[in-house]
Amino acid sequence: MTHLQDIMPGCQKRVEQAIDHWIPSINRYPQNLHEAMRYSALGGGKRVRPLLVYATGMATGQPLERLDGVACAIELIHAYSLIHDDLPCMDDDDLRRGRPSCHKKFGEALAVLAGDALQTLAFHVLGHDDEITPDPAIRLEMIGILSQAAGSRGMAGGQAVDLAATGKTLSIAELEAMHIHKTGALIHAAVAMAVRNAENLDEEQGRALEHYAKCLGLAFQIRDDILDIIGDTNVIGKQSGADQQLNKPTFPELLGLQASKERARQLHAEALDCLAGFDDNADVLRDIADYIVDRIS
User: Fold this and answer.
1) Ordered DSSP codes for 78-146
2) What's the rounded Cα separation, in Å, for the pair 219 and 272?
3) pLDDT tens for each residue of 144-196
4) Could you tell me the residue ranges of all domains in the chain?
5) Exposed, middle or buried, 120 (CB in 10 Å: 0-12/13-18/19+)?
6) Ranges 2-16, 97-111, 224-238, 275-289: which has the least confidence
7) Strands 95-96 and 99-100, how do they pair?
8) Measured by CB atoms within 10 angstroms of the end CB, which terminus of the chain is less buried, N or C?
9) 8 A C-beta contact, residue 95 and residue 236
10) Using CA atoms, how far apart are residues 23 and 30, in angstroms rounded to an integer?
């Protein structure tokens, strides 16, 4: 029986080695852009989305080396999104993962370009990594999943709604819809791409894994909103209370702190129910669900 604590360091190392391989070194022209890309993509982090890729692979019987490119691609998109989210024109955060945000370190213009370059590199990896399935139709499907999750019908669209909602009151349904796109889309994509990479996976099991991911994505955002209130800046790696200062709609604002915790627990239970048809090879997915609702950073 394998658990998250057993595989987490190894999986984090795997994806970081893949990122290091695919981002050109700082000795390659243009050096300043590659330095900014590496600063943001290799500057720590929990690597939740790559962990979901690997854990889904374990649940579906895939060798981890077949998933390094998928894990790398999803993390490159995530790194790009954090660079852009932190910009003054967006959430205006000076701190990320306990270090200066990319634009504070390298300037706004280079930060924008670093984000752009990480985004495009993600799709290059999906197209060129040798270990991902050789089936071109499945590769195209993965590219489609990731592009939709990152675009106007996913993360970018959710961010646009979030910016427009600043200072406004949303209903719970509107808030959930926003975060299903902004945060949940990439979490769902991590699982969905690993599902597509599996051979001979039962369709019902595939649907169950994807529903697990949808529940997890919303629970993740609710916990983020909670940590913005109760978290320690030194622990969470970014400024606590930032959402309150920007007057952003959050789950605690609409539901209250305790009801938000309960909603996260409900989603956690629903996510675990989705794994009822899987054996102990899915225990890491179960542990990730526990981690997401209990995390302190």
Assistant:
1) HHHHHHHHTSTTTT--SEETTEE-HHHHH-HHHHHHHHHHHHHHHHHHHHH-SSS-S-HHHHHHHHHHH
2) 12
3) 999 999 999 999 999 999 999 988 889 999 999 999 999 999 999 999 999 99
4) 4-294
5) exposed
6) 224-238
7) antiparallel
8) N
9) no
10) 12
CB count in 10 Å sphere of residue 245 = 11
Q: Letter for the amino acid at 183? A: T
Instruction: Say which DSSP state 62 is in.
Output: -
* The pLDDT value given to residue 18: 98
Residue recorded with tokens 């649907």: 207
Angstrom distance (rounded) from CA 247 to CA 156: 20
Whole-number Å distance between alpha carbons of 153 and 156: 7
Is residue 96 classed as helix, strand or coil in its secondary structure? Answer: strand
- List residues bridging with 96 in a β-sheet: 99
**Beta-carbon neighbour count of residue 276 at 10 Å?**
8
Give me the phi and psi of 272, to 5 degrees please.
-65, -35
pLDDT at residue 243, rounded to an integer = 65
| Percentage above 90 pLDDT, the chain | 83
**pLDDT over threshold 90, residue 208:** yes
Task: Report the run of H or E that residue 99 belongs to, with start and end.
Answer: strand 99-100
pLDDT at residue number 295: 86
Positive or negative CA dihedral for 38, 40, 44, 46? negative
Q: How high is the mean pLDDT of the chain?
A: 93
Element at 223 (helix H, strand E) = helix 203-230
Q: Is 24:36 a contact under the CB 8 Å cutoff? A: no
Candidates 3.40.50.720, 1.20.1250.20, 1.10.600.10, 3.30.70.260; CATH matching 4-294: 1.10.600.10
CA distance 225 to 246: 13
Count of C-beta atoms within a 10 Å radius of residue 127 = 15
Determine the Cα–Cα distance for residues 202 and 208; give it in Å rounded to an integer: 10
